[in-house]
Write a structure and sequence with these properties.
By secondary structure, the chain is an alpha/beta fold. Helices cover about 35% and strands about 15% of the residues. A 5-stranded parallel β-sheet has the order 3-2-1-4-5, with helices on one face. The chain starts with a helix and ends in an 8-residue tail after the last strand.
Length: about 150
């Protein structure tokens, strides 16, 4: 499956959700040195920006501002920068790694998704927060992810 097939598949999955709010983990699209998954997320968000209907609200979550090349956002899109560590715990004398993942996605992102309660949550980088995956269906959004590679010997 090439990248254009993935875009069509993701767009189809998102369009078949009768949702008014779709949240997207956009963190991999941020930053200056993207990996393949980062570029995938970047181009996917760019494509979705032009295809998601205007009556659907979109929340983009990241730990830093998203690139200017993705802007301007449609009026129904909102970028939410979730700093790591959160302000309420950054004063503690704990050492937090400069690594953006997995603590950011497993703790900060999950907490915000629970708080915002979107109808669907899309993670283009295959790392769904465990708390969301294990939560009862009534307490969490529909979960969508991309599995980029499955290989074995």
């Amino acid at each position: 499956m090439d990248s254009s097939d993935r875009l069509v598949t993701i767009n189809y999955q998102l369009s078949n959700i009768n949702s008014t709010v779709i949240a997207i983990d956009a963190s991999r699209a941020a930053g200056d040195q993207k990996t393949g998954v980062g570029w995938y997320a970047f181009h996917l968000i760019s494509h979705l920006r032009d295809t998601i209907p205007h009556d659907v609200r979109v929340l983009l979550y990241s730990d830093q501002s998203l690139p200017e090349e993705l802007r301007p956002w449609p009026t129904n899109w909102e970028e939410r920068v979730l700093p790591w560590p959160p302000d309420r715990i950054s004063n503690f004398k704990f050492h937090f790694s400069n690594s953006r993942w997995p603590l950011w996605s497993q703790l900060r992102l999950a907490e915000r998704v629970f708080r915002d309660r979107p109808d669907a949550f899309f993670v283009p980088a295959h790392l769904i927060p465990l708390a969301l995956a294990l939560a009862p269906r009534a307490l969490r959004p529909k979960l969508i992810t991309t599995i980029h590679d499955v290989s074995f010997k």
